[in-house]
Amino acid sequence: MRIVCALVLALTAALVAEESDLPADLEPAAAGTKFSTIKVGDLERRYILREPAGRKPDEKLPLVFVFHGGSGHAAQMERFSKFTELAGKERFIVVYPEGIDKSWNDGRMAEQIGAQKQNIDDVAFVTALLDKLIKENGADPKRVYACGISNGAIFSHRLAMELSERFAAIAGVCGSLAERLSEKFAPKEPVSVLLMNGTEDTFTPYDGGHVLKKRGKIISTDDIIKKWIKANRCSADGAKSPALDKDKDDGTRIYTTKWSGGRDGSEVMLMKVEGGGHTWPGGKQYLPELIIGKTSREFDATAAIWEFFKSHSKTGK
Question: Could you tell me the residue ranges of all domains in the chain?
Fold first, then answer.
């Protein structure tokens, strides 16, 4: 029986690796979910928008973009990340964009990924949506943020690189920058950056290289950290926090380092998830550990991302 189970899990892992970097339909859509649309070029793009109740007239609120992973979708990411619940309590606007063919053009140009094969201009989509939400929904242009997992994390780095004047901070879970973009990495303005990468992630490796079965390459976690430290002109000496290991049974430990003193109060922060896999810390173990690795229970990634975001704006702290 154990042999049969192992074979089934191995086959499942192979199928997942062949088709996606984050399985779709992990969660049903939240109650009352309604997609809005915006025309960008010849494409009608979709997104889910959530605003806190009791908005005051002319009140400007922070805006958080949350990007799903490859083969994921906006409604799934809303339920998976639980940003909507936090947005209601903390009073910020959250938007969940929907990728073409359940993917983002993060710069890897992998032929197996729909948005990349078609060379979809997702940066233009985000730009148009951002302009719309500032003009029509009272988003504060000085407090705009982006985060995501896997394909969504890699895309968040691309956005910060190419739209550095628009984003105050980004956070990536299980992802770095596409290797193809790294040589022209030159953001115009500082962007605060938070990374949460697992050392045992076999989908988007901590040390960089091929994503899954040769689906393009990403640079290593250490390399993207160095690039952002240099671009933001942060202190070369990072402040290390004591290792976090509250849950002795989850098989993970968190090592946090923060590089501060950057331009306009910018910072770079790494939460190295030792033993962690292709997972969202504090989130759902959406597939067995044999396939995606361990989910850390040491902290809640969603809460940690917002704590980082709210301490940064385009005018500094």
Answer: 2-309
